[in-house]
């Protein structure tokens, strides 16, 4: 019996397992997925928790309910990957052999990497919303806050879901407007980037929305430290930004398992072929989602699109066929802009976000790079789609893993 092992039962690991079973012979292959937790979080929902739009019950389910019965789920911590002998060592000392390994270990926030951050009133005046606990604590803080300077801060790139800090800023504008406190709150977005997005057209469109909503942007801010006593961020040039509440996106890193195993770069991301999703160093190891070092957004849609093509390539590898360089960097994101509207962007390695329609060219019904109410409703519907379609590896009508450029103003 051959053994295929998947590390991580988050979005990438769960979707690829469900898709793999349609491509491999389960009479010849044992499939095992390993994760230390049984809690599966709908991570885009973390954004909505601080504003009272979602409750915890809306975004947490058991991982087991999304895994096929043919797949063995081991709930345990992983100590090390030993790629030279095709083994995975668990924290209890047990060893699993693999013939093919899929790394889907995601990313984690590392607030300790910013000097002073965890000592600066962490979960008192400084919060994250990239974790379940952080989102819950921030919800309580915003509910009781009287006003002042709200700073939304990106420590460094890359980060999971790079548009989420913009969404938080937009929703903060809506939240305090709804409560009659908007004039008491100054919202400041601080980023190390030269703009609010890395591509010119999307940057222009999103900056316009920020201006309309009176959200100030501080660019090219490379954070050196946080002073909790002064309640200030400092960059390496000595510039500072004051805050009353700091909503930070700390550095994101790959899992420390990758460092212990000697498989990653300096940020614990695994060097991965950008088109085949095969490890650059071991031919029987494949990587998906946030664990890769690919030059594309770390987002759930990326893992979803990758999973379809990765399952096909693993089947090719098993059957000793050449891999297809089929992944084109496709990603799409709904950007919640507040007041019942959202923007949708769709792009890949070569084509930046542009105006057009999605998913059907020329028809839509969703509009690209435009703020619309229908995009907002689609964003909210994504949670239902995630639990019932995406995680189970089912196709979404008219949405393809490879980007369809037709009907775009490219």
Summarize the SSE layout with pairings.
Elements: E1 2-7, H1 11-20, E2 29-35, E3 39-41, E4 60-62, E5 72-75, E6 78-82, E7 87-90, E8 95-97, E9 100-103, E10 107-109, E11 126-127, H2 132-144, E12 148-154, H3 164-178, E13 185-190, H4 200-212, E14 215-218, E15 223-227, E16 232-235, E17 240-242, E18 245-249, E19 252-254, H5 256-260, E20 285-287, H6 300-318, E21 331-338, E22 341-347, E23 356-360, E24 364-368, E25 371-372, H7 373-390
Parallel strand pairs: 1-2, 1-9, 2-5, 9-20, 11-18, 12-13, 12-18, 13-14
Antiparallel strand pairs: 3-4, 6-7, 7-8, 10-19, 15-16, 16-17, 21-22, 22-25, 23-24
Look at the structure and give the CATH class of the largest domain: Alpha Beta
From the N-terminal CA to the C-terminal CA, the straight-line distance is 50 Å
According to DSSP, the number of beta strands is 25
User: How much of the polypeptide forms β-strand, as a percent range?
Assistant: 25-35%
Query: How would you classify the helix and strand content by structural class?
Result: alpha/beta
Can you summarize the main beta sheet? 5 strands, parallel
Range of helix content: 10-25%
């Amino acid at each position: 019996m051959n053994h295929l092992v998947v590390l991580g039962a988050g979005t990438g690991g769960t979707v690829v397992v469900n898709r793999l079973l349609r491509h491999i012979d389960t009479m010849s292959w044992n499939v095992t997925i390993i994760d230390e937790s049984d809690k599966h979080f709908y991570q885009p929902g973390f954004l909505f928790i601080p504003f009272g739009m979602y409750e915890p019950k809306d975004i947490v389910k058991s991982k087991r309910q999304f895994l096929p019965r043919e797949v063995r789920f081991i709930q345990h911590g992983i100590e090390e990957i030993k790629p030279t002998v095709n083994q995975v060592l668990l924290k209890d000392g047990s060893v699993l052999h693999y013939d093919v390994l899929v790394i889907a270990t995601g990313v984690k926030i590392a607030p300790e990497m910013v000097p002073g951050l965890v000592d600066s009133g962490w979960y008192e005046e400084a919060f994250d919303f990239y974790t379940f606990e952080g989102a819950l604590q921030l919800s309580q803080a915003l509910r009781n806050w009287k006003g002042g300077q709200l700073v939304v801060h990106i420590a460094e790139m890359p980060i999971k879901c790079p548009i989420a800090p913009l969404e938080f800023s937009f929703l903060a504008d809506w939240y305090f407007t709804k409560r009659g406190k908007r004039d008491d709150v100054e919202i400041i977005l601080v980023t190390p980037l030269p703009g609010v997005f890395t591509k010119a057209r999307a940057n222009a469109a999103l900056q316009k929305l920020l201006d309309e909503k009176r959200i100030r942007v501080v660019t090219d801010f490379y954070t050196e430290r946080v002073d909790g006593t002064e309640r200030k961020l400092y960059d390496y040039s000595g510039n500072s930004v004051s805050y009353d509440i700091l909503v930070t996106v700390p550095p994101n890193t790959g899992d420390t398992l990758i460092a212990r195993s000697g498989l990653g770069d300096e940020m614990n991301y695994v060097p991965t072929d950008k088109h085949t999703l095969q490890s650059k160093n071991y031919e029987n190891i494949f990587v998906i989602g946030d664990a890769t070092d690919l030059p594309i957004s770390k987002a759930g849609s990326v893992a979803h699109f990758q999973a379809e093509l990765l399952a096909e390539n693993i089947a090719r590898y098993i059957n000793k066929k050449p891999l297809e360089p089929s992944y084109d960097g496709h990603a799409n994101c709904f950007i919640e802009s507040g007041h019942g509207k959202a923007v949708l962007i769709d792009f890949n390695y070569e084509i930046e976000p542009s105006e057009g329609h999605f998913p059907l060219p020329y028809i839509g019904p969703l509009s690209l790079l435009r703020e619309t109410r229908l995009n907002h409703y689609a964003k909210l519907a994504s949670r239902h789609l995630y639990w019932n379609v995406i995680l189970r590896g089912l196709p979404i009508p008219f949405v393809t893993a490879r980007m369809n450029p037709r009907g775009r103003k490219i």
